[in-house]
Design goal:
alpha/beta, Quinone Oxidoreductase, Chain A, domain 1, six-stranded parallel sheet, about 30% helix, globular, ADH-like_C, NADPH binding, GroES-like_sf, oxidoreductase
């Protein structure tokens, strides 16, 4: 096939700017594979790119889509695994909202045993993000008090399961009783409905948080600093309420806090390959054994990507949203 179906961003704007199109089928470069996409995950960075505030890195496809599952159909020079015919899930630099996509072979992982392609498409973006930020950057240890904001999101539901499995005490914030219950069902010790309770007071009563994973930003940043215990760590991965805030750094000094954060997409091929290696060794056996699994919200056909974005931005979903290609 010379051309493929895809969804492109016609101009910066709301979900309605996502339109079907045809594009050339990509060819693999050295170190890359081409995947025939079965499902593509829908993530917040896709919406940011659509709105014009998250440009693709140099050389990446301008099509949205940062994770997928499917079958490898072409292999570039220098690739030992995966091979043509293998089913994989993969982290993508972009281009997932399409029938075919090229990505570094080192960012592919096998579909876990017993898991369908729909569920596997939900693994890469969230598991790469959570593992690199919570465990590699945040240094979460067994027994620590870990607060996750947005506990019912794809990131949140993944973080709950991984942290609980590795022995941390998990606390979350969420915006409804249904979302709070979903977090408790996954293993959270305490779910804080932020519309009814102050997470700062709740966590201070527990002795403060040792680690906080935050995607909200805005005034949550200063509240997080108040919430952290001595020698606590704040890891910032998004700013749904904005990146700028007035902050009392005296608390950072007095409590010896660490404030850090990262974005996944702009990191080097090698950096993301190292995350993949750790996931393959330490997390994929848990998925193979069925001890953890992605939480699924809904599925949309590729042509209804706009509706999928509208659901995600409505913030009523619990878990992951996928596009069926």
């Amino acid at each position: 096939m010379a051309e493929m179906r895809a969804i492109e961003i016609t101009q910066p704007g709301g979900p309605e700017v996502l339109k079907p199109c045809t594009r050339p089928v990509p060819e693999p470069e050295a170190g890359q594979v081409v995947i025939k996409v079965a499902y593509a995950g829908v993530n917040r960075p896709d919406a940011l790119q659509r709105a014009g505030s998250y440009a693709p890195p140099p050389g990446a496809s301008d099509l949205p889509g940062l994770e997928c599952s499917g079958e490898v159909v072409a292999v570039g020079p220098g690739v030992d695994w995966p091979r043509a015919g293998d089913q994989v899930c993969a982290l993508l630099p972009g281009g997932g909202y399409a029938e075919y996509v090229a990505t570094p072979a080192a960012h592919c992982l096998p579909v876990p045993r017993g898991m369908g392609l729909k569920e596997a498409a939900c693994l890469p973006e969230t598991f790469f993000t959570v593992w690199s930020n919570v465990f590699m950057r945040g240094g979460l240890q067994a027994g620590e008090r870990f607060l996750i904001h947005g506990g019912s999101s794809g990131i949140g539901t993944t973080a709950i399961q991984l942290a609980q499995h590795f022995g941390a005490r998990v606390f979350v914030t969420a915006g409804s009783a249904e979302k709070c219950q979903a977090c408790l069902d996954l293993g959270a010790e305490r779910a804080i409905n932020y519309r009814e309770e102050d997470f700062v007071k709740v966590m201070k009563a527990e002795g403060g948080a040792n680690l906080i994973l935050d995607m909200v930003g805005g005034d949550y940043i200063s509240r997080n600093v108040k919430t952290l215990a001595e020698d606590g760590r704040l890891v910032q991965i998004a700013f749904l309420q904005g990146p700028q805030v007035e902050l009392n750094f005296a608390l950072v000094m007095v409590k010896r806090l660490t404030i850090t954060g990262s974005t996944l997409r702009p990191q080097s091929v090698l950096a993301k390959a190292r995350i993949a290696d750790q996931l393959r060794e330490q997390v994929w056996p848990l998925l193979d054994a069925g001890k953890i699994a992605p939480v699924m919200d809904s599925e949309f056909p590729l042509e209804e990507a706009a509706a999928a974005h509208a659901r995600m931005e409505g913030s009523t979903h619990i878990g992951k949203i996928v596009l069926r290609v």
